[in-house]
Amino acid sequence: MTGRFARERVRHELVRREVRVLRTELVAPGMRRVTLSSDELTGFASPGPADHVKLAFPDGSGGAGAIVTRDYTPLAFRAGADGADPELDVDFYLHGDEAGGAAGSGGPAARWAASAAPGDAITVMGPRGSALPPADIDELILVADESALPSAVRWLGALETIAPAAPVLGLFSVDDPATADYLRAFEAEGRELRWFSGEDRDERVGAALREARIDAGTFCFLAGEASALVPLRRFLRRELGLPKEQVDVHGYWKRGISGHDHHAPVDPSDAD
User: What are the extents of the domains in the chain?
Assistant: First the structure.
């Protein structure tokens, strides 16, 4: 690792785990938390704030035995205590659909999560690797829609360990203003968490980012619908000239595309 914002990368053995739903909870409008449990979760590790696991579940579209997989951020893991099995929380956004909905987590994943009940089976694979947060963050900027709120939670949690006094600017594009409840526990002095709703919410997020103070110690994490992130990435990388190590951008879904590969470059014209 060299240079500012260098990040250690950790590889994990790829493990397939058969788990069952332990409980579910609506934690904010359209955000359902599914807690999974199994002794096969023993040894599960996910130290990176933007880690993802692959979930495999029934398609639900009528094809007998059809299975689909989707990637999700593991929100929280708790090792088993007093003989209990370990638990893994995964949050799903239930609105929209993968072919053009508000946050890309609709379709078979959202249908499964909306009806999930204790005892339902699902397969968890990964994570395959982790990118640990940089240890030298002076300030953190988070840009996210509903699909990336679990990653925002994990970044805020990581910051409490590596730089608890660092200011945070959060710019969140959401369909329902009440989704702000999702991050209520992370509100604190020095953290400006702003929520944008309405048809022009992505444009207002972009305007707020342009008005933000961004200097050499500011680390930027942006995730959500890929097309909406392109102008934000271009502003940070091209107009401000920030190095790639300072700007971490992920297209978790893409309007009009089912099963979008979040590893794909957000801006095909500039893959760096």
Answer: 10-125, 130-253
Q: Which CATH architecture has domain 10-125?
A: Beta Barrel (2.40)
Residue 117 CA to residue 113 CA, distance in Å, equals 9
Answer yes or no: pTM beyond 0.85: yes
Q: Residue 34: which pLDDT band, with cuts at 50, 70 and 90?
A: very high
What are 252's two structure tokens? 């978790």
Q: Is the pLDDT of residue 96 over 60?
A: no
How many angstroms separate the CA atoms of 48 and 123, rounded?
21
* CB-based contact 134:158 (threshold 8 Å): no
- Alpha helices (runs of H) in 123-212, residue ranges in sequence order: 149-162, 201-211
Cα–Cα dist 219/5, whole Å: 8
Angle, alpha carbons 148-164-173 (nearest 5°): 25
**The pair of three-digit structure tokens given for residue 47, joined into one six-digit string:** 């130290």
User: Are 221 and 141 spatial neighbours (Cβ–Cβ below 8 Å)?
Assistant: yes
- Alpha-carbon 89 to chain mean position: 13
What distance in Å separates the CA atoms of residue 197 and residue 217, rounded to the nearest whole number? 29
What is the residue-wise DSSP string for 215-250? -TTEEEEEEEEHHHHHHHHHIIIIIS---GGGEEEE
Q: Which CATH class is domain 130-253?
A: alpha beta
Farthest CA pair distance, the chain: 55
Burial of 114 (C-beta count, 10 Å sphere; 0-12/13-18/19+):
middle
Percent of the chain with pLDDT over 70: 88
HSE-up (13 A, CA, CB side) for residue 148: 28
